């Protein structure tokens, strides 16, 4: 890779992934992956967007940051003055709408996991001790939580946002952003409250699994939750979409169940 090509490549990334409206951002993220693959192959490189390409190493995250902007250009997630008696200190600077949006994300996350983690490999990344969340959790600037809150006093008020850390690089950006908006806005419409306390400061990954509801540990488990009769996914996306998308994921794990992996061959070919 020449230095000139590398600098042009960095410029493309910067311009492609600047903040924009959700539908445009999904297009940009998808185009980014396509362009990286195309340029990589041209130069003898195979770019990898698997969630967990290597055993024993952290995976590839596909974090999504989201904020809501009012018609007059103000951040709808922040409040003018801190709340003197917030339910949790971490949300003192978060608006009522922002809290409701967060509550909607937390409640709906387990029911929509196939949209955030759509492949067999996705769940190899969502394990303890590798800086990937495995519970329904949140926290102020917390790198172990499934939802990371950025707000004053650690950031400017205009930068108030949520970073949803569950998706891997293998996720479809359109599905991810659709789920985030649908779940968050459900929280706003129903005026839901945040009932999950934030992860304590300094909470490491080995302890995070003991806090809150666990996320699905496999695609098969995720699809079962996604399709249950009272799933939040059915409420926000409708039965038709849920059944159709679940069918594609069921096909995926059926193929996996029939596959014979290199690991199995290495482990058993001489020992059984």
From TrEMBL:
Gene3D superfamilies (UniProt xref): Glutamine synthetase/guanido kinase, catalytic domain
Pfam families: Gln-synt_C (PF00120)
Span of domain GS catalytic: 1-272
GO molecular function: glutamine synthetase activity
Keywords: Ligase
PROSITE patterns xrefs: GS_CATALYTIC
InterPro entries: Gln_synth/guanido_kin_cat_dom, Gln_synth_cat_dom
Protein family per UniProt: Belongs to the glutamine synthetase family.
Protein name per the record: Putative glutamine synthetase
Organism listed in the record: Aspergillus novoparasiticus
